[in-house]
# Entry
Amino acid sequence: LPVLTMLAEDAEAKYGDSRRWSAVLVPLTTLVIPAVAMGIFTIYVSSDDAFYQFRAGHPRGMREEKELYSNPLYAGRKNPMEGLVNKDDFEKGLDEAWERAKPKGSTVTVKDKLKELSTQNSPHWWRNEHGVADVGC
# Structure
């Protein structure tokens, strides 16, 4: 440990440190970052399909999603119960866990709650606005 303290320099700002960082940060903040931002903005303004992956409900994204879920390998991919080996065993285990953890006097049952969640309507979900909530299910 004493060797490490002998090798360490004093904690002080030196004249050369600010010049070294200025050589990197000044061109980066005045040339590179503004040029990249202007380029992205120009692409966004000039094309209707620019960055469609990030825009909910974009026609091209919806079309690609329908094509994806029409493939048999991806059919039903949005179903949360898809891929369970034994759905009845899952529900039985969930029911047992709920019986152990539920508060006293609770009348909620797993079967009723799963039924309620399977028919749930979320009016503010963006897929409901576009009428494609059932894509892939």
About this structure: The first helix runs from residue 2 to 7. The two ends are 63 Å apart (CA to CA).
